[in-house]
Specification:
Layout (H helix, E strand, L loop, with lengths): L4 H12 L28 E10 L11 E8 L3 E5 L6 E4 L5 E4 L4 E16 L3 E14 L2 E14 L9 E6 L9 E5 L11 E8 L9 H16 L3 H22 L2 H15 L4 H10 L9 H16 L54 H15 L3 H10 L7 H14 L5 H29 L26 H16 L4 H18 L4 H21 L41
Antiparallel strand pairs: 1-2, 1-11, 2-3, 3-6, 4-5, 6-7, 7-8, 8-9, 9-10
Helix pairs in contact: 2-3, 2-4, 2-9, 3-4, 3-6, 3-9, 3-10, 4-5, 4-6, 8-12, 9-10, 9-11, 10-11, 10-13, 11-12, 11-13, 12-13
Length: 574
């Protein structure tokens, strides 16, 4: 599909100025049937909202609000970006700065066809189809039918924890992606600019019967609200899953496990005590006193929390070389995460990775060409994969995405103890993979593609830490290896998920392919190391039927001596 100059103006405007256009749109929560009193059945899911998508400045430097209104269901999708009440300059991708007169900007998107709707755990819905896009900038007007992809997440009543990402693809060759956000994950738009709205996804599948999963879903809700870095989120999930599983296997009592889990969440997120008590009551554990065994396990994990090196202070040292990663706005994310206490893998177990190709070498130039090609030609399937695996702050993060995948694939066939064991092992494996990945990232300090390639067409904002190796590729391969061992009948699913997560980072433009390949190899090595630690278990998998009483032997996370790990000094810091 060709793109006219006016379309390129619009596309570039939202790329260059960060002007994130409203989102999805248009549906009426209750649709009339031709009678003023009759109402159609309530849709399976819907979203409505208004937000401030940008605060541009007029020619006098005075900021004003540009707002959008959206609504959607499984059948319909509409969005309108409100007209501007002041003239303002807008930077464009292709034509420099365009001066938009007062009340001379308007955009509306209306669905032409919904091609695919998919629901997943955690209140996530994905929608793919075509929209008719009508745009006016000054006297220029264009009408085009273009593909779109949207992912919506219901974070609870009201807009506080809802998330909506809307991507319109105007032209594969010369128009950047249009990214729009709603809710706390609005990294391009104004997160504080949400005026009103709600996203309600009823098509979530069956609610979990396992209490272990209920606690993980609550942990995911906290992560979406607090927006911690991916490393910190993975650590939190590991504590929640470990305490529940350990106490349940020791006491055989879900109420005892719930009480202990509530206490560890109070320790890690004390501001959520009231909400934590609500969940405790909903699972029937209100008023339950912790037994001695539960208290002993809880004390061990609290001691671990105090001694796992999570609170180490960074010395603010960043390499001075021009070809190294550099700080753009704020300091890098958890630069000392490699020194955190590991959960399963021995502290002194080191993993080797090949050096990335030297900047400017023939191999390095090939990597540059790969990422340019990947970001110039994106398919709708690639856009869907980018959005699904994004894991940006405000989402469940990559570790939470894998927890959701676990529940979606095997949740219905496991009892509480079996699920708690698998959930814990997955959470701890991913947490270890993040720790080991961070050792590599801050050993090499390699730049992201956009730091080296001008005007690179990114589908996601760059994460605020070095590139080599890819965290998504590493932790996803580790997760796939561990889950393939536990549930061998789902091996193809897990491995395909890991490959999709890896490839999405190249398509998004935030990783070189070498980052992903090396991360995949590292993730497999970590997964195999974890499985070797579990080889002594009498139960090799949970995939052939109900797990036996020996599943509690998969508990290598709390050694008898909770000493702090020896700090590795092999990693160079300039």
């Amino acid at each position: 599909m060709s793109s006219s100059p006016n379309r390129r103006v619009l596309a570039g405007a939202f790329s260059g100025a960060g002007l994130v256009v409203g989102l999805i749109a248009g549906y009426f929560l209750w649709a009339g049937t031709g009678s003023s009193t009759a109402l159609a059945p309530r849709p399976s899911f819907f979203g409505v909202g208004t937000e401030i998508v940008e605060r541009p400045r007029d020619h006098d430097g005075v900021a004003f609000d540009l707002t959008s209104t959206f609504a959607f269901t499984s059948d319909s999708f509409h969005c309108v970006v409100a007209t501007n009440d002041r003239p303002f300059p807008m930077r464009t991708y292709a034509l420099g700065t365009v001066h938009v007169p007062k009340n001379q900007f308007f955009m509306a998107l209306d669905s032409v066809r919904i091609e695919r709707v998919a629901s997943a755990a955690g209140g996530r819905v994905e929608i793919t189809g075509l929209v008719r896009s009508r745009t006016r900038i000054g006297s220029s007007y264009e009408d085009a039918v273009v593909p779109f992809f949207a992912v919506a997440i219901d974070g609870g009543p009201g807009p506080q924890n809802d998330l909506l990402l809307f991507t319109v693809f105007y032209n594969h060759a010369d128009s950047p992606l249009q990214l729009a956000h709603f809710g706390p994950g609005a990294t391009f738009g104004q997160a504080e600019g949400v005026i009103a709205g709600d996203i309600v996804t009823h098509a979530r599948g069956k609610p979990p019967t396992q209490v272990a999963r209920k606690w993980m879903e609550y942990a995911i809700a906290i992560v979406r609200e607090k927006k911690p870095p991916p490393t910190t989120a993975a650590r939190f999930y590991a504590y929640v899953a470990a305490v529940y599983s350990k106490v349940l296997n020791k006491t055989r009592d879900a109420l005892q496990a719930s009480v202990a889990t509530a206490e560890i969440i109070d320790t890690l997120h004390p501001s959520h005590k009231a909400r934590t008590r609500q969940l405790l009551q909903s699972v029937g554990a209100a008023g339950t006193q912790a037994a001695p065994d539960a208290n002993a396990i809880l004390a061990a994990y609290r001691l671990r929390n105090d001694t796992d090196n999570f609170r180490l202070a960074w010395d603010n040292a960043v390499p001075a070389e021009e070809d190294k990663w550099f700080i753009r706005a704020v300091e890098p994310v958890t630069p000392l995460a490699d020194r955190w206490k590991r959960w399963i893998v021995d502290t002194d177990r080191n993993f080797s990775v090949p050096d990335p190709p030297p900047v400017g070498s023939a191999a390095d130039q090939l990597e540059v060409e790969k990422v340019i090609a990947a970001t110039t030609h994106r398919t709708l399937d690639e856009l869907a994969s980018i959005a699904f695996w994004a894991g940006a702050p405000g989402s469940e993060t990559p570790a939470g995405i894998w927890q959701n995948r676990l529940f979606e694939e095997v949740g219905e066939r496991l009892n509480d103890r079996e699920y708690a064991t698998a959930q814990k092992l997955l959470a701890q494996s991913i947490a270890d993979a993040f720790i080991i990945t961070w050792d590599v990232k801050y050993r090499y300090w390699t730049q992201r593609p956009s730091m080296r390639i001008p005007h690179l067409n990114l589908a996601l904002p760059d994460p605020n830490f070095p590139g080599y190796v890819s965290g998504h590729s590493t932790i996803s391969k580790t997760a796939a290896e561990v889950l393939s061992h536990l549930f061998p009948d789902k091996r193809d699913v897990w491995q395909r998920n890991a490959t999709d997560a890896k490839n999405s980072r190249l398509s998004a433009g935030i990783h070189f392919d070498v980052d992903n390949r090396a991360g995949e190899d590292l993730g497999k090595a970590i997964g195999m190391e974890i499985l070797a630690r579990l080889a002594s278990s009498r139960k090799p998998s949970l995939g052939a039927g109900p797990a036996s009483a020996s599943v509690e032997r998969l508990q290598p996370d709390v050694p008898s001596t909770l000493s702090s790990p020896t700090l590795r000094t092999s990693r160079g810091r300039s």
